[in-house]
Write a structure and sequence with these properties.
Length: about 190
């Protein structure tokens, strides 16, 4: 039995579309407190540790189950960005991203009985085009509040592509989980046929 320790609709849709049976059980962790405890950690390590914390929390509630935790974070010019607290902050983030390259780190960790059995992190680079204030307001009129739940203030499966001039990296990583490597790990664990 696989448990996805996430309420992310995007991650759930990826697994479902790939034919993976799972149950979603959101993890109740304080992500910002965990990040604050890792001030000097590399972004890839933070994404993995957040994913692992989610998986461990849910694993403690369901002995024997294989639990998948996943998390993403965005770095622009060396600064980490969290999900925006409100629409005003979302607009501020978009103005800071304008004309810069966004590094999106997506981590996934599999845990069984409190033991980590797989740890995967991938990075995609997204070139944000120059965004006018008019575009930002029109974009947020259409996408808020949904993008308030998204690091980077975008949903690539919705109007998010309008933010970018180029994307380098795996599409699944951009969606929030390095799916191909996760599927390989699930095969290794016997959840999927080899």
């Amino acid at each position: 039995m696989l448990i996805l320790a996430s309420k992310s609709a995007s991650r759930q849709a990826m697994l479902s579309a790939a034919g993976v049976a799972f149950t979603a059980v959101p993890a109740d962790i304080d992500e910002r407190a965990l990040e604050a405890a890792l001030p000097d950690a590399a972004p890839a390590d933070i994404a993995a540790q957040l994913a692992e914390a989610k998986a461990r929390t849910v694993s403690a509630q369901d002995p024997g189950a294989l639990v998948l935790g996943s998390d993403s974070l965005v770095v622009v010019d060396g600064r980490r960005f969290d999900k925006p607290a409100d629409r005003e902050e979302a607009g501020a983030h978009l103005r800071q991203f304008s004309g810069r390259t966004m590094e999106l780190y997506s981590g996934a960790v599999l845990v069984r009985d409190g033991l980590t059995v797989a740890r995967i992190v991938d990075c995609a680079r997204l070139s944000v085009r120059e965004l006018s204030d008019r575009f930002i307001e029109t974009y947020l009129d259409a996408e808020w509040p949904e993008v308030g739940h998204c690091v980077g203030v975008f949903r690539i499966e919705a109007r998010g592509p309008q933010l970018f001039s180029a994307i380098e990296g795996d599409q699944f990583t951009v969606l929030g989980m390095p799916l191909l490597a996760v599927l390989a790990a699930l095969r290794d664990e016997g959840v999927l046929p080899a």
